[in-house]
Every structure is written in C-alpha cells, then in structure tokens.
Amino acid sequence: MRSEEQRRLLGQFIRSHREGLTPDMPTARRRTPGLRREELAARAGIGATWCAWIEQGRDVSVSPEALRRLAMALALTPAERAYLFELAGRRDPEAAAPAPVSDAPDALQAMVGLLDHPAYGLDRLWNACYWNDAAQGLFAHWLGAEGPKNLLRYVFTADTARALIPDWENRATRLLAEFRADYGRTLDDPRAQALVEELKAQSRFFAQVWDRQAVTAREGGLRGFVHPVEGLIAYRQHTLHPAERSDYKLVVLVPSEGEG
User: pTM for the whole thing?
Assistant: First the structure.
C-alpha cells in the first residue's frame, strides 16, 4: 500500500511535468502554465476528476495501464517513467527485477581496488562504500578521514565542493536529478527520506532544486575539477552497476585532455 508521502510526491511529480508541457492549441488567455488537468486527462485517455485526485494525493488505485498512458502523455524519459511507477507502487512490466537489500557486493570492492584512476562505489543512498587512493586524493574533503562520505552531503553542504567543482550550481542540479531517479526506488527505506529532509534543512539550494521534481538517468561525460595543487584537471566519468546488485554503482574517472 502506498504511503501518504508517496501519494503526495506522485501528485507533485505529475503536476510539475504537466505544467511543463506545451498545449496543443495555446491561447493568449491561459491562467495556468502548461497543460490543464483536463487536457492531460484527454491526452492520457483517463477521467479528469480521477487525474485531479491523483494530483491532490488522494488514496486512489492507479493501474499499470493508466500509468503507461500518463507516462506517454507527459512525454517522460525512461528515468522519469521508472520514478512514476515507483511512486505509484506499481510494477512497470518493462523494468528489471529489483535487487534484494544486502551489503555492498564484493565485486565492487575488487574493481575499485584494481583501478589506478579515481574510482569509488556508491550505495543506494549515495554513501561511498569503497574508494581507492586516487579517488581520495581527488576528493580529500569528501573521502578523507573527516569527510561526510555521502556524496549529496558533500556537494550541497561543503564549501570545499564549490571550490572543487567548476560550474557548481549546474553540476549540483544535475546530480540531484540523478539521485531522484534512485530515490523513487528507496521510498520504503526511512533513511532515504531522512537524508532528504536533513539536506533540505541544511541547504536552501538543495530544497529549491528538490522541489523542481527533475529526474534524469545518471550519465557519463566530461567532468572538470579544480584541484588545490594540480589546478584544473579533467576526466571522463563512467558509471557501472554490478550485475548482482544494480542499486550500487561503480564510478570511474578516466583522465582526459579536454576541459571540464
């Protein structure tokens, strides 16, 4: 059964994405941004009242077929679609089976230790569970003895993160959208909600970005860092998931001659 928090988040998510859509026939006298509820309901082939109840967080049953229609009507990305199904407490037939909860896989520790480039493992709450010396040298204030170990805590609450990461605001915004994709799969874990509430209280920027309801899949690419000794250095970031535990991540940074 979905919790009240899940229903609230589901309603906010649908409303946020509905308001970001372009109407089929825009007019000059629209009082609300994006699509009206009635227009979204028509696109999805569902009742307008029922659509309103979902946005209001009421305890209504939502079938996988209705969610499929809503996902298509809202033009959701795969990551956004997965988040929608998670919030609704429904199984997306196209999604992979969830992994059981257990300790970090040994394979993750083995891979991190074998790599010469900066590499680290993240658990489902984005706590660093393993890292090598190269990663600790790059992220001394995150992975060092006094570091917070949680990637979100570091990025959003540590002044050293702003100094290390060029274009910090945009990078932090994307990072949080990537985390939200994982958050939808951890709603049964009270630690996930506690982490979000803690960061909302500690970082005004975190709270603002979190309320935007942005969701995106974690992708690699060029990442730049301003090291206090080496200056600006660039890496290609690659993120992999262990086959036996897809809720864990292996993140590897390969040196690049490009600019971050």
Answer: 0.74
